[in-house]
## 1
Amino acid sequence: MLVFLVKRIANAILVMLAVAFLAFMSFRFLGDPVEMMVNESATQEQRDELRERLGLNHGIVEQYARFVIRAAQGDFGLSWRNQQDVITLIGERFPATFELVLIATIISLVVGIPLGVFTAIGRGRWWAEGLQFGSIIGVSLPSFVVGIMLILIFSVTLGWLPGFGRGDVVDLGWWSTGLLTRSGRAAVVLPAVSLSLFQITLVMRLVRAEMLETLRTDFIKFARARGVPRRALWFRHALKNCLMPVITLTAMQFGNLIAFALVTETVFQWPGMGMLFMQAVTFVDIPVMSAYLCIVSFIFVALNTLVDIAYALIDPRLRTA
């Protein structure tokens, strides 16, 4: 088990070093940091002093090593646009993104798992086939189209829910949340539903496939022969054996939602990390872009590693392999 853990952690470190190298090279290919940070009236001496302070006069290997050491300590420098510490900017936006992704994940599980069970036990019926067809539409529609349709229907036409912003928030130390206010809860509904639609279809189709396979197994046949009620057979016995792939998918998709929530955040003007990244791309704010890339990649790698370790703890065959 120790060798397995060492290998997984070593792989995670190598992946993060590769991501850090890509983030570091963005500084060299997307413009001169000195020219973007100083004003037009700056003298050559001021430019040289800033270049020396940023360490741009050193070799590329030394610059990369310094970048990795600072990034490991959470130091990504100053934002070229806001002239503020990058990690502070991301820390202010992370609660909004985490809150949105968490609500979207909960919605996808609460809706997707029952739909998967019902489409499996109702295989061949018109309503089950209709849900299957609807899941194809849910997978195919781009998230920005879904977001715009939700805003048009529930915000513009019906006026039930706000179509942009986060509403009122409450500060709990360094963390901010809108779930404790009425306007905050109302504001999170539409972007969370928009973000969760693709996840709902994935969970539903995965649960359906696993349920169909589980219902064919011998222990389900024996339970049915013993007279176990159908509801208990479906939800107590069969569903429990289908949840491991769902847990894996949810863990993997959680990082995916954080990474690709930027489209939803842009459509709904949600003040999260994705919105900050889009602003950084617009103004070529390389430190913010590099920090976003490293942080999101770290979340992916950490979740992958945790899932691998969980599998190894559950299945001894992976440890011996």
## 2
Amino acid sequence: MATSNTYLVGGAVRDTLLGLAVHERDYVVVGSTPEALLALGYTQVGKDFPVFLHPQSKEEYALARTERKAGQGYTGFQVHATSQVTLEEDLLRRDLTINAIAQAPDGQLIDPYGGQQDIQAKLLRHVSQAFSEDPLRVLRTARFAAHLHHLGFSIASQTKALLVDITHSGELTTLAKERIWQETHKALNSRSPWVYFEVLEACGALQVLMPALAELLNRKPQALNTLKRLSEPENNAHIRLTGLLYQLNKPQIEDLAAQIKIPNDPKNLALATSNYQRQLRAYTELDASQKHQMLSNLGLLRHTDSLDQLLSLCEAITRTQEPLFGWQSPKQHILADLARIQSVKPVALMAQGFTGKALGEALKKAQIDSILQG
């Protein structure tokens, strides 16, 4: 395989030009075949696309390819990958011009569709009208808007119109739930995750994919404020997501988790915050029985792994909703109460003759009494 036929493409080229950290490198190989790459020790991955892993670096090398729309959804494409496909043809099938720049081994940039010009203009613009054939590009464009918002990027008006067209086509319903979560999770890890939801709302996609969030933002335009506040100090995607979801009720969170395959950990954090954020914020005003019930329901009697996450969310909610009152963390009060609860030993109660259900009730009463004595 001639090295002159191998080009660095996509995000690595884009982020280098933007001065951002490069986390992974993808390559396109022009003028080669699957047999030639396999003979060189490359490993083919996936059945749908001619993508190969380098024998040493394990980086992805894809044969130059073209695609033709042949069915519904983001998987409804016929892939054409032969040694005759040119680099320009391969770049033409990409989504945004800033992602359609290639770099030769000698550093020369190949940019047939104006990606560098759009980087200078801070513009997210589609490469061609084929953009509207793939509904996944709605989510990808929203994600890149979130990724590059801090640099001043915006979406070109013609591209915004295509996002609306795709939404109206009905093809968003063909997206796999797992892929929706994958793009959403990547957006939550970006510098400005709230922009992702703003873009989806503006083109109507949020109503199709996450109706409970669309209804929330329609009813409460300020619903993104906690997410915005959290995004600066907090880079945990699950905590960021909960900064939006806590404003939904339990059935809505459960429905949304099913609609876009939210994993259990972030779903449970959102449910806990939705149910208990008001009590946590007013912890010192609760009576001993209320404190015990909440700590038990949150699972904090068994382990305190989620406590810092919950309090981080409560702080952001307080600073968003009640900025004049400030934030007084109840963490030390909670830890002190948990220590008192842990000091109550079932063995002592069993020595007094308690067993079965009566033992459980006596243990609970003794734990509540220990909080009262604090």
